[in-house]
Amino acid sequence: MKSSATLRRLCDCTPAEKTLYTSYLLVVGLGYLMAMVYLYTSHAGHDQRPGVSLEDVAANYYGNRSGTRLEAAIRGPMAGYISAEDRTEVVAWLKSGASRADYQVSVEPILERSCTGCHNPRSGLQVPDLTSYAAVQQVAEVDLGESLHTLMKLSHIHLFGIGLLLFTVGMIFRLAEMRGWIKVSLIALPFAAMLADILAWFLTKQDPVYATVVVIAGGLLGLSLTLQILLSLWQLWVPPRGAPREAE
Questions:
Q1: Quick one: which of 67, 65, 62, 101 has its CA closest to 87?
Q2: Which of 238, 224, 167 shows the shortest CA–CA distance to 24?
Q3: pTM attached to this predicted model
Q4: What is the average per-residue pLDDT within 55-71?
Q5: 88-91: which pairs have CB atoms within 8 A and are 24 or more residues apart?
Q6: Fewest CB within a 10 Å sphere: which of 39, 77, 141, 194?
Q7: Contacts of 235 (CB under 8 A, 6+ apart)
Q8: How confident is the model at residue 141 (pLDDT cuts 50, 70, 90)?
Q9: Mean pLDDT in residue range 154-166
Q10: What is the rounded distance in angstroms from the CA atom of residue 111 to the CA atom of residue 86?
């Protein structure tokens, strides 16, 4: 009979447990990969250069305070929905003072063609209304980045959602065999990185220099989670040879 003081190893799991853990870890890994693709597509282009840079990250939270929210959107995450010619026309209108007369002549047709299919009150989406001059004026103001309300909403979603995800992956990873301090570090690191990442959102809202912290913390979170998943999968199916059991 196995001692109750002996920690089960991943290689000691039953075939059903191995299948369950493997399926879950693969789904989590795929979900995280999709999240990274989403972050890339939503942050890329704020600085009008391909790829994601520190300037793109800073613009998301601090804003582009030399431009407007509408300009930031059509140069960044919404760039794929509007042609280069139309984008140039809208930006020129914004920089010329965003007058009602020019809006009706040149900008309104562009927005109707490229934007109002989603950006209207009937869509049910939480996106700005672009169906009237008065509504467009709301996003023709200086771009201050994500609002405090949005950051609070995203923070509690990430704290609950990612916190639970890290807990469940950690519960599997704790059965892996390795030096104790390495295991403890890999379990604690993603939680610390998540907290640093979220705190850096609010700091970057005040000063774009903290965008570096957002990138580093996000990278550490992704790296530690990836290592937990890969090491767990390896030891589930390729058990270490001659490794002594660990005490809980």
A1: 67
A2: 167
A3: 0.71
A4: 82
A5: none
A6: 141
A7: 9, 10, 11, 175, 176, 177
A8: confident
A9: 96
A10: 9
